[in-house]
């Protein structure tokens, strides 16, 4: 079995990024090191899925048509009610919401973290057998209308 273990982000300032990834995404801080300049966060699957390394003022991620990371995706629950709650946390925290999509296999809200990285908050659609049904790959991405 192969699975994504973790990813590492260089960040301008630790505090707003930790607040975003704990309060909005729902991760927990599992530890800090290097005098508070590194913070490990986990959703509970492994020792850490995200490591933040504070580098201070530096250019942020490139935007638009470019090569490189587009976004990260975090499964934040099991149904649309969990996604509605995540969207409400974003609104309450003043997080910029850039879109909502129905991918057939999942429902997503796209937001931007404090350093400008795009983050997908999603839930899988119950009953869709993605392991045995690859039709979701050709499913047209449609607007998602969440009941709030």
Write the layout of secondary structure elements.
Blueprint: E1 7-11, H1 14-24, E2 28-33, E3 38-42, E4 50-54, E5 71-75, H2 80-93, E6 97-102, E7 106-112, E8 118-124, E9 142-143
Parallel strand pairs: 1-4, 5-8
Antiparallel strand pairs: 2-3, 3-4, 6-7, 6-9, 7-8
Arithmetic mean pLDDT: 95
Rounded to an integer, what's the Rg over CA atoms? 16 Å
CATH class: Alpha Beta
Helix/sheet category: alpha+beta
Q: How many individual domains? A: 1
Question: Helix content range of the residues, please?
Answer: 10-25%
Distance between the termini: 38 Å
Strand content: 25-35%
**Bulk shape:** globular
Low-confidence stretches: none
CATH structural architecture:
Roll
User: At the third CATH level, what is the topology name?
Assistant: 2,3-Dihydroxybiphenyl 1,2-Dioxygenase, domain 1
Major β-sheet annotation: 5 strands, mixed
Number of strands: 9
Sketch the topology as an H/E string, one letter per element. EHEEEEHEEEE
How many helices? The count is: 2
Sheet with the most strands: spatial strand order? 5-8-7-6-9
* CATH homologous superfamily caption: 2,3-Dihydroxybiphenyl 1,2-Dioxygenase, domain 1
């Amino acid at each position: 079995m192969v699975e994504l273990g973790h990813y590492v982000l260089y960040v301008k300032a630790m505090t707003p990024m930790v607040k975003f990834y704990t309060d909005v995404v729902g991760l927990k801080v599992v530890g800090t090191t290097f005098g508070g300049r590194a913070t490990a966060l986990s959703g509970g699957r492994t020792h850490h899925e995200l490591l933040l390394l504070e580098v201070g003022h530096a250019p942020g991620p490139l935007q638009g048509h470019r090569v490189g990371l587009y976004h990260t995706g975090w499964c934040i629950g099991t149904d649309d009610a969990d996604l509605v709650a995540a969207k409400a946390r974003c609104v309450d925290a003043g997080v910029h919401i850039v879109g909502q999509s129905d991918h057939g296999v999942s429902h997503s809200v796209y937001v931007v973290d404090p350093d400008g990285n795009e983050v997908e908050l999603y839930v899988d659609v119950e009953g869709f057998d993605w392991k045995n049904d690859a039709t979701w790959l050709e499913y047209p991405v449609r607007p998602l209308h969440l009941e709030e």
